[in-house]
Amino acid sequence: MYRPKTTLEQWRILQAVVDHGGYAHAAEKLNKSQSSLNHAVAKLQSQLGVQLLEVRGRKAYLTEAGEVMLRRSRHLTQNVQDLESLAANIQQHWEPEITLAVDLAFPRSLLYPSLQQFLPECRGSRLKIIDTVITGTEEAITQGWADLVISHHVPKGHLGEVIAQVNFLLVCHPEHPLSQTSGPIDPNELSQHLQLVIADTSQSPDEKQGWLKSEARWTVSQFHTAVDLLLQGIGFCWLPEHVVQPHLADGLLKQLDLDGSSFRRLVSYLVKPRPDNIGPGSQLLYDLILSNRQVIRQDDNTATTGNNP
């Protein structure tokens, strides 16, 4: 097994000498004698067989080799600091990893402000954001494999906070036969055409949500794949308004008027699958998402940001 010749303390002293412009100031900052710092750096250079500093007048300057070694040493000492900080966080039950499951239909732009605020406070915790769909999202709650879940359905026995509402529109290509229909489309006519659906991420999908009466169905894993197919004139699909709005505005897609359902509205909930066993990092992220949530007021149908329902 390899045994290091040098110590972290030696590298820390070298960094201090450089950062504070010499041995005298570094000794003051580290609360050590100047002679001990001189001895530590001299021994470091001797052990490496490389000159790191050269003294000119009363100041010490890095050699070319010293600049390279110093830069690499900063990574070393920072990694040790991060490792010890992680150990302290684990000791305090701060999670080393947080899993956030997000239903694919939830607008990611609503999540980004919370993530930006979470980053400087996360204490080095790794964050896993996993896309889920329908039953797969529910399983993240019922099976408890995620720390937090953004879902459009709260399973029995769980609670969720409303954080947004998402409209789904029925769309197809402007030249698709369904686009040529005048007036609301009869659902029976709709069932005669190819429907694009988004794959359920569950291992045991339960097709119980959405309009799925078409005998001909193509299944894709992402909304953007469905949009690409629609732009080629293939099929029709229910898609989130925020996903298709740019294409509707450009006239590349057309919203269909279905008799009995011009659009579908889903409520987005933030759920703690295990509320009695949530870690401090997950709780912080939960609070940040709530503070940035968007809620639709039923009286004027406008979005508001904040905690007022």
Automatic annotation (TrEMBL):
Keywords: DNA-binding, Transcription, Transcription regulation. InterPro entries: LysR_HTH_N (IPR000847), LysR_subst-bd (IPR005119), WH-like_DNA-bd_sf (IPR036388), WH_DNA-bd_sf (IPR036390). It holds the Pfam family HTH_1. The keyword Membrane does not apply. It comes from the Bacteria. Residues 6-63 form the HTH lysR-type domain. The keyword Acetylation does not apply. SUPFAM superfamilies: Periplasmic binding protein-like II, Winged helix' DNA-binding domain. Belongs to the LysR transcriptional regulatory family. This is LysR family transcriptional regulator. It comes from Fluctibacter halophilus.
